[in-house]
Structures are given as C-alpha cells and as structure tokens.
Amino acid sequence: MSKLAGKLDAKRQKDIKTLTEFVSIFCRENHKDAAKLPFSVKTVDLSSFLSLDQLQLCPNCHKLLTHGVVKLLMCPYDPKPMCKKCETHCYAPFYQQQIRQVMKFSGMYLIKHGRLDIAAHYFLK
Ligand code: SF4
Ligand SMILES: [Zn+2]
Predict the structure, then answer these.
(1) Could you give the CA distance from residue 19 to residue 27 in angstroms, rounded to a whole number?
(2) Which residues place a Cβ less than 5 A from the ion ligand 2?
(3) Which of 57, 42, 37 is nearest to 98 (CA)?
(4) Which of 21, 27, 63, 93 has the fewest Cβ atoms surrounding its Cβ within 10 A?
C-alpha cells in the first residue's frame, strides 16, 4: 500500500469524490471532441470509493484531476479547510487557475441541474 493510500479517511474520500465530479462535468461539457482516457492515479487505488468505470477525461483534465487528488491526499491540515479558502493554497499556479474555472463552471452547472447536494459540498462546507 502506498503512503498516500493511508490518508484516505471518509472526509478525504468525499473531497476526492466532489473534485472528481466537478472535473468530470467540466470535461464532458467543454471538451466534447477531445480524445478521452480512463482515469486512474498510479500512487493510490481510488476504486474502493469512486466509480471509475464511466470516468473518461481528456488529457488536460486527467492531469488536473491527478494534481488535485494528490494535493488532497498530501494536505497537511487536519481538519482540512476548504481549498478555496486555504491560506497556503498548494496547487501549482497553472492548476490553481484551471481548478477555479472548473469549480465555477461545474458549480453553476450543478445548481442549474438541481444537484444542490453536490454543489453544496463545495460552496458551503
Ligand atoms: S489548497 Fe490548502 S486545504 Fe487544499 S489541499 Fe492544498 S493545502 Fe490542503
Ligand atoms: Zn477535459
């Protein structure tokens, strides 16, 4: 088992699920014509709590989600604050800019489609 896998408590699993949902929506809606790859992260097995069968992402979104998952797993805070309110945001600047765009787009998408339950995890918690 990798060192990262040991940090997969329930809260972190939920954060990874939310992040995955947001990136997945963004990719599906904005990168319709791009070639898609199945998502996985080499250092940790996500399949025990994440349904990966249907998750296909373009190469850029694949990299972004991998970056986000690894950062969540390595987060030094306990309890972890919301990433968007974090004072020491750990994403590389390029990915930080991208993830803001993704969260804004997918958050609005989920609200428009009545999925306040998922959106709330990002906007309220
Ligand atoms: S942005 Fe902050 S809260 Fe989010 S994973 Fe990085 S260090 Fe943790
Ligand atoms: Zn994409």
Answers:
(1) 12
(2) 27, 31, 58, 61
(3) 57
(4) 93
- Pocket around ligand 1 at a 6 A CB cut-off: 71-72, 75, 77, 80-81, 83, 86, 88-90
Q: How many CB atoms lie within 10 A of CB 81?
A: 11
Residue 7 has pLDDT above 80, yes or no: no
Whole-number pLDDT of residue 43 = 80
Tell me, what amino acid is at 48?
S
Contact 59, 35 (CB under 8 A): yes
Q: Where are the domains of the chain?
A: 4-123
Q: What string of DSSP letters covers 16-83? A: HHHHHHHHHHHHHHH-TTS--EE--BTTB--TTTS--TT-EE-HHHHHHHHHHHHHHHH---SSPPPG
